[in-house]
Amino acid sequence: MAGDNRTSVTVVGLGSMGRALAEAFVAAGHPTTVWNRTPGRAGPLVDQGALHAASITDAVAASGLVVTCLTTFEDTRAALEPAARALRGRTLVTLNSGSPAGARETAAWAGAHGARLLTGAVKNVPAAVGAPDTLLYYSGDRAVFEEYEETLRVLGGDTVHLGEEPDLAALYEMAVGAMLLPALVGFFQGAAAVQARGLRVDSMVRFAGKWLDMIKALLPVYAAEIDSGDYSDAASSVNLFLAAAVHDDDLSEETNVDTTWLAPLHDLVRRAAEAGHGEHSVSALTEVLRKSPHSGA
């Protein structure tokens, strides 16, 4: 099917991201069938040219390529279970959250029902689906990815195959996604502190963006340090972060903003210093984050 821009596709799950996926397929001219537990969500897509399947079995049977966008791997299997027999000979692409273990379990489940599987992740918000720079990555059988790569690229121009192991997309999804909540809560803490002075939060957005740009520029440096295990060239040391922790307490007292969410991070920095990494690069925190295989933790 490579090179065929009219590949028939089914989208299962019509939340905000699922709707965006279906809209992208329809806009690109792919015959698109949709299904959701709540049928009413299909209406706007039908108006755009999608077909609404009456049942999950009809939805799966309608296309050789079935794309699911549900919350977890468990939700995906539960939704598809009534249509399991219809999966035989089809390609299933899962775009949901979940652990590598969940991906492996789903790969075994799909294989047992005769389906080929690609697990994947959309690394952006629904509004960005279809944009040339929107990142999606997949893992699983490379031949399957290559067969449908052109079709999947409709969802985002930065489309990557990570490898043959079916759990790699889930691994990278969690590894990269781990940065999101701490970064957002940091921004929200700053927002509360700025508001405590009677200032507008939008006044700090440009500066926060510059700060994130700086962090982005440091990631290759830290990655090289971690890969090599050499933390001796410390532009920002563990001790520097340790000394800065007291400022968070000062901020909390002055602005009445709760900074206790930082306590585990401060503890991590302290443990790194106690482990002998005080003068090392802050990337040495990675060594403290690793659990000993004999620790039982």
Automatic annotation (TrEMBL):
Cited InterPro entries: 6PGD_dom2, 6PGDH_NADP-bd, HIBADH-related, HIBADH-related_NP60_sf, NAD(P)-bd_dom_sf, RedAm-like_C
Residue stretches making up the NADPH-dependent reductive aminase-like C-terminal domain: 165-291
Domain of life the protein comes from: Bacteria
Pfam family for this entry, one: NAD_binding_2
Keywords from the UniProt entry: Oxidoreductase
6-phosphogluconate dehydrogenase NADP-binding domain sequence ranges: 9-163
Family per record: Belongs to the HIBADH-related family.
PANTHER family for this protein: CYTOKINE-LIKE NUCLEAR FACTOR N-PAC, OXIDOREDUCTASE GLYR1-RELATED
Name of the protein: NAD(P)-binding domain-containing protein
